[in-house]
Amino acid sequence: MPLVLNIRGPPNSDFVVGYPGIDATWPRLVGTVEVRSVDGKPFRLKSLSIQLYRTETIQAPSGKIGINQARRVESYIVGHKLELYNSEHSPGKSFLAVDIPFIYTLTSDKGLPPASICIPKIAQSLYRLYAMCEEEGKRELVRTYCPITILRYDTMSSFIEFQEEHISEVNSLDSIVSLRVKIEKTSFGPGDPVVVEIGIFPNRDWQYKSKKVKIQQISLKFEEKIALNVAGDDPVIKLRTIHQEKRSLGNIRLPELGYKCKITTSIPILDRVSKDNLLVTEEYGYPNVFTQALTTTANLFSVKYSITVQAKLSNCKDTELKVPIYITPFDKNTCTEMQVPLHESLNTAFEVAQAGHNLQSTFIMPNDSDLPNKLGIISGADGRRHIYIE
């Protein structure tokens, strides 16, 4: 009879331990692979191993309206194959049940994997952890898998590199004015406030022309740029405005010292509630976050964001400036609260690296003297045997 495999994570916990994207926390998968026979009879296990795969899918639009190009699907190995058991170390042994714990490191020579993500009808990145075993005397390989959800933590807004203010400036095409944009930080989560300082300044070398400039409107928008790597062609770019604000100024004349204003807005929150006021459950294997997408780079696609400021002018060329930003799945408060467990994870990873880790496997054999106890069968006060559930 064939064998049955099952992969389970730690009790009341996720497979993923540590913080993917932060190497020092030792991102890893922790769990146990269970091997049983269908009929409950003893079996001889030849080999058992696990391997993590990432499957990326893109659906790029074609040049014709209403027609999409064929889907492109590719799978990649993440990390290294982990052998959990080999009969060479214990030949000829029969088992009733086998439970082997594992620690599967997520980091690899190719760098940290991109986040799990699902952009409906455009792009997906899904992880699956496969367990594979072979029984002695049989050719078929028994497989099973479970979805793994991976988030990236390296773009959290609480990190110092994203707390620094960012200033960008660009001249209009006719060099009569310059547009300056300043933001206080460069990483944002759902619902986070965004303060943008905007300045329009005349070119002192063109004072005669700059005095005639009038400001009609200033607009600010968050743009999402998805690049799809279609086989044999240049990447297909999809641009989407996820939020926009406009400020009409009534055709005011540009002051001699320039014009400054401040626009305060926030990152849109994805509404996950249906028409019946029920929380929409998403497919297992994708993160339960309140953003449509997040900043990530995979093999087949990339998702990037920017703040675009446009100045509509008269007697001067309209001016536009894009400032790149990062979208993280965690809001400001969540990022701040994560600092304590993140530092604890750093200490844990260091301690384990120094002391090593010893995983205890369970092998239940037909001739074990305490077989009923190992199988969870205990004798009650009435003399009958009962199944013990921990």
Q: Would you mind describing this structure in some detail?
A:
- The protein is built from five helices and 22 strands.
- The model has no long low-confidence stretch (mean pLDDT 85).
- 26% of the residues are buried.
- Strand 7 and strand 8 form a beta hairpin.
- Strands 12, 14, 15, 17, 18 and 19 form a six-stranded mixed sheet that branches. Strands 1, 2, 3, 6 and 20 form a five-stranded antiparallel sheet that branches. Strands 4, 5, 7, 8 and 9 form a five-stranded antiparallel sheet that branches.
- By secondary structure, it is mainly beta.
- The protein has helices at 160-163, 207-210, 332-337, 339-355, 371-374; strands spanning 3-8, 16-17, 28-37, 45-58, 72-86, 97-105, 117-119, 123-135, 141-148, 166-171, 177-183, 187-188, 193-202, 214-228, 236-253, 259-266, 296-297, 301-314, 319-327, 362-364, 377-379, 385-387.
Mean pLDDT: 85
Query: What percentage of amino acids are in beta strands?
Result: over 45%
> What radius of gyration results from the CA coordinates?
29 Å
Stretches where pLDDT falls below 50 for ≥5 residues? none
Shape: elongated
The total strand number stands at 22
Structural class by SSE content: mainly beta
- Counting H and I runs of at least 4 residues, what is the number of helices? 5
Note the gap between the termini: 29 Å
* H and E order: EEEEEEEEEHEEEEHEEEEEEHHEHEE
Helix content: under 10%
Largest sheet report? 6 strands, mixed
